[in-house]
Amino acid sequence: MKASGDTIRLHGDDNVVIALADLAAGSVVDGVAAPLPQTISRGHKIATRDVAAGENIIRYGQIIGQAKSAISTGEHVHVHNLGMSEHSRDYGFASQNAKLPPIDETRTFMGYKRADGRYGTRNYLGILTSVNCSGSVAKFIAEAAEKSGLLDEFPNIDGIVPITHGTGCGMSGSNEGYATLFRTLSGYAQHPNFGGILLVGLGCEVMQLSDLVGGRPIRADGALRYMTIQHVGGTRKTIEKGLSELRGVAEIANQARREEAPISEIVVGMQCGGSDGYSGITANPALGHASDLLVRHGGTTILSETSEIYGAEHLLTRRAATVEIGEKLIERIRWWEDYTERNGGEMDNNPSPGNKRGGLTTILEKSLGATAKSGTAPLNGVYLFGEKIDTRGFVFMDSPGFDPCSVTGQVASGANLIVFTTGRGSVSGWKPTPGIKIATNSEMYGRMSDDMDLNCGDIVTEGVAIEDKGRELFELMIRVASGERTKSEELGFGGVEFVPWQIGAVM
Question: Which Gene3D superfamilies does the annotation name (predicted)?
Answer without folding.
Answer: 2.30.130.110
